[in-house]
Design a protein that fits this description.
Helix 4 runs antiparallel to helix 6. Strand 1 and strand 2 form a beta hairpin. By secondary structure, the chain is mainly α. It has two domains: 150 residues, no CATH class; 84 residues. The protein is elongated, with a radius of gyration of 31 Å. Strands 1-2 form a two-stranded antiparallel sheet.
Amino acid sequence: MVNKKKSSSGSTIRRARTPEQQLHNLTRLLTKHRNEIAKKRLKLETYLDKKWLSNRGNYDYYLFDIQRTLITRRPNLIAIFTGNIFKPKMRDKALLYMNELVLYGHMCFNDYKTYPAQVLKDMGSNIKTIQKEIKLVMRKIEEQQVVKSKKKEIGTKFVFGLASGLPHLYHNVLWEELDTMKIQFEELEKLVIADKELKHKKTKTNFLGKIQYYLFLCREIFKMTDFSKFPEVNTDNYDRYLQGFYLRILQEIPDISETDQIKILNSIKLRPADQKKYGVNKFVNLMGCSSSEEYKRLRKLINF
């Protein structure tokens, strides 16, 4: 029998009478402690907190809103590059469109997908292999330090860390650390399984669709140019200069500045079917978005 005793806080404490019961309780407490350490190291207790999860749907919008505020409070790199090339009456509109481009770049950079099914399968397999190897090391420690090292006889005994001058009981520290690591990988395996079960339509970025809003904004900004300052631009070479503008503006948007330029040029002219599916021909005003619901709606309009 195990007696129950009320603590000063009102909780019930089990008082173990036999050594077996004491060992069982101690093992249970240590296991719980190592579980807590493992989750703390992975930050799971923070990120899987109910308050966090209840707001997770708004997190992308939260980052978007912060970035939008920053854009309005610091110089626009595109505007610094273009300088005073716009028609006087178009300068404010040009700045609005350039801010829109920077915000678009932020959205592209932070648009994440779940890993493809095969990658997740490989991750799960790798994690299982690591768990298996950790268990083998733990078993070796148990065999040598827990069983053989306790025999009171003349014989060969092994200890870990002898060359480094570690104490003979260091194997206890090592075993506990490995057990905690094993729990960490068990938690990681749960995350992989959850991602595998998540029903996500696409795991690849639709470049052709996503680049269309960038092309639209650049095209509209280019139209606002005061071409009286650039007599070399005419109807015969307009498209060539516009293509150069597409690529040069890209360098002023840090979040997407390394995008493949050839892919951009190949996305300018769309086939009729792609134009119907992905074409973007209007300003959606990301800078004026005022709620997470509107944010979701605007994302769809520009093929996110």
